[in-house]
Write a structure and sequence with these properties.
single chain, 371 residues, alpha/beta, seven-stranded parallel beta sheet, two-stranded parallel ribbon, 10 helices, binds NADP nicotinamide-adenine-dinucleotide phosphate, binds ligand F7E
């Protein structure tokens, strides 16, 4: 049985990759960093099928011990500080683990198990201020954020260990990929979560930044398969993974609101605080090498992705509304209780009435928290 080690196993991609590798019959090991309270929500459903180990990309000895303990055949380095705006507010920390962390993991492999195959999670953010369109493996890099700069470092150190030490190291230059498990601060999930809340009457407005930015958005579940395929070849190489189609943030917003029968123009407002010091205005990938060599193509298209994410957020909010203890819920801004506790319930939008039932089937009454 092949053994895979995944750093960043608790993230969006780590969870899909774990599921995929389990289906392929792998023994899956995940690296997690120590926190005062762990968040395993994305891997809760498979936690008993994978082995979790504590280590940190900031700590060399922990990585060497991890590789020694697991003796992996394949290492997928997905851990990173992956939210681009935070890389301006924490540039040193971002460089340290999104950039230098890659060298630490490569060193652990070189010293302890040089035969292990290595996947590095590179990013289309490396193209930044794009030199040509669409971008392929030959397109020069011009990163626009400390995150992008760190990823360029991680990319080239992977190439360098391949050329210097003959390590089987691949860099996947993945364009934006999303899912219902995407972190809430990324624009797609921020939008679909807000659409669901607005539809259910618990949010009024959605504040966004640059609606004209364009991205090549795919589905994370499709992209993790390309990561695995890169490590199944005779020779290591680097690949662009993308859909080849770009759309603006505005198009994403518009489709997401359409899905619930609302017009986005009534709800979306621009807040300059979401603009970036240097923007990546447009990205569109050419994944023809991945198609030719890996026989990889995405299954989920843009419309399906938007609908999938809106539907998932609607469903989870509805479920929460039916089962949650609203007396503790400060996030939605509602105060709730049983009929006896609150007399004011006219503020519940009529269409929400069915959602506000508690676990035992009693009607739950909600009122807006007073300012
Ligand atoms: P994500 O959801 O933000 O997950 C990041 C993971 O890294 C989490 O498991 C996080 O653990 C872990 N991590 C952060 N700091 C760590 C540290 N110091 N030591 C150990 N683990 C640490 O990211 P994603 O969307 O799954 O992306 C996976 C990788 O692909 C990232 O490297 C990202 O930069 C790259 N990438 C993503 C995209 C995309 O569109 N999604 C595109 C190109 C490249 P905690 O749970 O403890 O925070
Ligand atoms: O922004 C614009 C924003 O934060 C996309 C990461 O996974 O993909 C991701 O990086 C675009 C940008 O993703 C808001 O200005 C407008 O142009 O969803 P995002 P990202 O920066 O493209 C790459 C490939 C990675 O590697 C990264 O790890 O949307 N935008 N208004 C906004 N973005 C956010 N977050 N919030 C807004 O309100």
């Amino acid at each position: 049985m092949k053994k895979a080690l995944i750093t960043g196993v608790t993230g969006q991609d780590g969870s899909y990759l774990s599921e995929f590798l389990l289906e392929q019959g792998y023994e899956v090991h995940g690296m997690v960093r120590r926190c005062s309270s762990q968040n395993f929500s994305r891997i809760e459903h498979i936690k008993d099928k994978i082995a979790l180990h504590q280590a940190d990309l900031l700590d060399q000895s922990s990585l060497e011990a991890l590789v020694r303990d697991v003796q992996p055949d394949e290492v997928y380095n997905l851990a990173a500080m992956s939210f681009v705006p935070a890389s301006w507010t924490q540039p040193i920390m971002t460089s340290d683990f999104t950039g230098l962390g890659v060298t630490r993991m490569l060193e652990a492999i070189r010293l302890v198990k040089p035969s292990a195959k290595f996947y590095q999670a590179s990013s289309s953010e490396m193209f930044g201020k794009v030199k040509s369109e669409p971008q392929n493996e030959q397109t020069p890099f011009h990163p626009r954020s400390p995150y992008g700069v760190s990823k360029v470092y991680g990319h080239f150190i992977t190439v360098n260990y391949r050329e210097s030490y003959n390590i089987y190291g691949c860099s996947g230059i993945l364009f934006n990929h999303e899912s219902p498990r995407r972190g809430i601060e990324f624009v797609t999930r921020k939008i679909t979560d807000a659409v669901a809340r607005i539809k259910l009457g618990v949010q009024d407005k959605l504040f966004l930044g640059n609606l004209d930015a364009c991205r090549d958005w795919g589905f994370a579940g499709d992209y993790v398969k390309a990561m695995w395929l890169m490590l199944q070849q005779d020779q290591p190489d680097d690949f662009v993974v993308a859909t080849g189609k770009k759309h603006s943030v505005r198009e994403f917003v518009s489709l997401a609101f359409d899905r619930v029968g609302l017009n986005y123009e009534k709800y979306v407002e621009i807040d300059p605080k979401f603009y970036r010091p240097a923007e990546v205005c447009t990205l569109c990938g050419d994944a023809s090498k991945a198609k030719r060599v890996l026989n990889w193509e995405p299954d989920v298209d843009f419309n399906q992705l938007v609908n999938m994410m809106v539907d998932a957020d609607l469903q989870s909010l509805q479920l929460n509304a039916e089962t949650a203890d609203y007396s503790q819920n400060t996030q939605t801004g509602w105060e709730c209780g049983d009929d006896a506790n609150f007399v004011v319930y006219a503020t519940i939008p009529a269409r929400l009435f069915n959602y506000f039932k508690n676990a035992s089937g009693h009607r739950v009454i909600a009122r807006r928290r007073r300012a």
